[in-house]
Design a protein that fits this description.
alpha+beta, seven-stranded mixed sheet
């Protein structure tokens, strides 16, 4: 059984760290603004397997720390979670949604109508590109 629901920011930390930055400490994946975000988890048979955090500022929303357990990647769970998030933002009359995407994941985001911007950067030797979708 698959269920998507809001979770606390603390519930995202272990999965974030294990998937995104396994060589870093848990503190590395904590964001100062986590308390102000909306956090969603996708549960498969009551086990948390994917997380995403949303930060709304005016008519713009950024999602961050989107992670799915490695063994569950490629099975559509991340797509379900991102679709849920996009639907959530459209109900909130958000004008645009954006993220800092790892360059090697940009094609995934394009499937959701997101486009690459000219803004790029490198963190821990990983190239990123800012992607956005305007509603």
């Amino acid at each position: 059984m698959i269920e998507i629901k809001e979770i606390s920011f603390q519930e995202t930390y272990t999965l974030r760290q294990n998937v995104m930055w396994p060589d870093q400490s848990l503190a590395y994946v904590k964001l100062p603004q986590d308390k102000n975000g909306i956090h969603f988890g996708l549960f498969k048979n009551e086990k948390l397997i994917s997380v995403i955090s949303l930060f709304i500022k005016g008519k713009s929303a950024q999602f961050r720390k989107f992670a799915t357990i490695h063994l569950e990647q490629g099975k559509g769970y991340g797509s379900l979670l991102l679709s849920h998030l996009i639907e959530y933002t459209t109900q909130k009359t958000i004008a645009e949604i954006w993220c800092n995407a790892r360059v090697d994941k940009a094609d995934f985001y394009k499937k959701f109508g997101m486009v690459e911007t000219t803004k790029t950067y490198v963190k821990e030797n990983i190239p990123f590109v800012v992607m956005k979708k305007v509603f």
